[in-house]
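Lecture notes, unit on protein representations.

Consider one protein chain, 407 amino acids long.
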Amino acid sequence: MARLGRYMMIMALLFSMTGCWNRVELNELWVTAATGVDMMDDGQWLVSYQVILPSAITSGTGGSGGASQPAFHVYSVKAKTYNEALSYSNLETSRRIYVAHNRVIYIGKKAAEFGMDRVIDFYLRNTESREMVSMVLTDGLASSLIKKLSVPEKIQGAAMSDLIDNESDYLSLFPKVRVYDFALSMNSDSKSIGVPVAELIGERSHKNEKEAESLDVFKKTSPPMKLALTKLGVFQNGKLKGFLNKEESLGVSYLSQKVKRAEISFPCRQQPGKKEYTSLRIDSADVKLTPRKTSSHYTMQVRVNIKGGLIDTTCTKDVSKTKTIHEMEEEIAKEVTKTIDDGWAKLQELGVDATGFADRIHRKFPRQWKTVKRNWNQEFKKMELDIRVKAKILRPGLLQKHIGSET
């Protein structure tokens, strides 16, 4: 009887504990699509949250011709720390900011120059935030860029996340960087990484910038301004050190083994004075990096094997001939070599090892690294590349000659 009594008591306790004691209803939350981080002149953080309005999406507004309501709102909160800003948001909105579904974090230029250690700490320490969110640098204020609409998408944060994914998969100019990747770079030997830069491009004016925040932009067939990825910001020890243009960034992508697909435009071997180009779509880029040590410094042996197909040409030569194909492959190799050299020269000028060569040298020469580590910035600037590129055109296309060719 005593055992039966204890059993009945346990069952009664279990039934009394049913239900979700810490449940939160969806209509009590602001689901965040993007976050903006800025450092203000007084040393405080300005954190902006792009929160989704489900009613605007389900009702068909927020992007249609007759839209009357945007699909998101932006709340900006000023505080001494990132987490304090999240807490203070409860003073301005009746719903709790929910960052678990955040897709993109925009970093303002001044915040990037100050350093990302506090932001990274929040994302790794907080149980709700996710470290797989993509990072994007802005050349101005993140709180301003996060308000801009991205035609034709309703949710700008989701659109930017998809833009980063597509660019990384098809162009490889600005490889995708997540909070997790940034954290790893801060704890690596090189302590450096590159982050894509997003900005408004087009006919810049105060009127057009304001219109980019208005639903009127959806009523135009060609918006005067739009969001785009334009360059690469390079960080060292979590702080912004400088920028690379598209060509330089592609060179760094080769040296970082992050080229998935890309396109190359290279000149044709024709009579002097003519500007004729052919484009190759790279289907595979195999890059092998091998550090070498000489008596005075280190050299990185770079071997690149590229395979792809021609996608357009204005050259008048017959591409069905083996000689023409070989000439094109040599031009491709020259173009890739130049791209790598340009990216490398810019990194050495900035003194930022965004390629992660320090980690490779550490693994290859662990004993010598103990000495080199103390003066790696100087050693990096002395380092040389030994580049050899082999290109293979697998598919010249259906046409043997350029249309209109006289030969």
